[in-house]
Write a structure and sequence with these properties.
DMT family transporter; single chain; mainly alpha
């Protein structure tokens, strides 16, 4: 069950990243974050009211608030690092955030079996290679590395925090709602500050019309991200966090495959090798 929910998480996150990447080609990244998460807030708000999930309010919701604060910071750091590039270095390094929830699991006393330890190592190597790391080319700016590591730590922290934010299904709905409200608040403040400094909130070509026409895609990105957080929380609660975190972090493989199938991008040899290793690691983790 843990492997199933964790793999569902990787598919959802991978597709959300793919959709978000396409949207940010025309629309400012912060606008994509704020609008997509605002749609998620509305949907989750309806679910919370319909299920009476507000009765689950408790001290654990502070974990959701923490995840909501860290998430936009990590995402913004990641986008800035991608802008500095090279993407072939930044993208795989961003997936190293898996070390945070895995480390938390080990500290809490989880001890994966031999096969699972092997699977963790193989899968992590596969995840990094699937991003297509650039082994040659110009030196990477120190700022890009620092931003990428900040993003990686943030992504891993969100996984660790959201796993602790609820213990029941209705409580999970409330935790995700609180996380998204915090996301929108922090992201909205960052967007406002960016506009005050002369940044853009709308695309240069098309303006608001582009955002309105992109609402279905924005809704998909926001809701897929929410669903991924939900499935990861369930995976982390039903089995070892060390296993759930690694399997959930296979999402770069999904993003690469989506680009291959939908955009007809060519898969580099190192990416193909990474995808294969990630698959082998998945089998080892599931069988362990």
């Amino acid at each position: 069950m843990t492997a199933l929910f964790a793999l569902a998480t990787s598919v959802l996150w991978g597709l959300a990243d793919f959709g978000g990447g396409l949207l940010t080609r025309r629309t400012p990244a912060l606008t994509v974050v704020v609008v997509s998460q605002s749609i998620a807030v509305v949907v989750l708000g309806v679910i919370v009211v319909a299920t009476g999930a507000w009765h689950e309010a408790g001290h654990q919701l502070w974990y959701a608030v923490g995840a909501g604060v860290v998430g936009p910071v990590a995402m913004l750091s990641f986008y800035k690092a991608l802008a500095l590039g090279p993407m072939g270095v930044v993208s795989p390094l961003g997936s190293l955030g898996v070390a945070v929830p895995v480390g938390v699991g080990l500290v809490l006393g989880e001890r994966p079996g031999l096969l699972q330890f092997a699977g963790i190592g193989v899968a992590v190597v596969g995840i990094v290679l699937a991003g297509g790391p650039e082994l040659r080319g110009p030196a990477v700016q120190r700022q890009a590395i620092l931003l990428t590591l900040t993003a990686a730590f943030g992504f891993g922290a969100v996984m660790a925090l959201i796993a602790e934010a609820s213990t029941t299904l209705t409580g999970l709905f409330l935790a995700l709602f609180v996380q998204r409200v915090t996301n929108v608040t922090v992201g909205g403040a960052a967007l406002y500050a960016s506009v005050q400094r002369g940044g853009r909130a709308l695309p240069e070509d098309g303006g608001m019309k582009v955002v309105v026409s992109s609402l279905p895609a924005l809704a998909f990105v926001g809701l897929a991200d929410v669903a991924a957080n939900g499935t990861y929380s369930i995976a982390a609660q039903t089995g070892p966090v060390t296993v759930a975190a690694v399997l959930a972090n296979l999402y770069p493989v999904v993003t690469v495959l989506a680009a291959l199938l939908l955009l007809r991008e060519r898969l580099r040899l190192v990416q193909a090798a990474g995808a294969g290793l990630a698959l082998v690691g998945t089998v080892l983790l599931a069988s362990g």
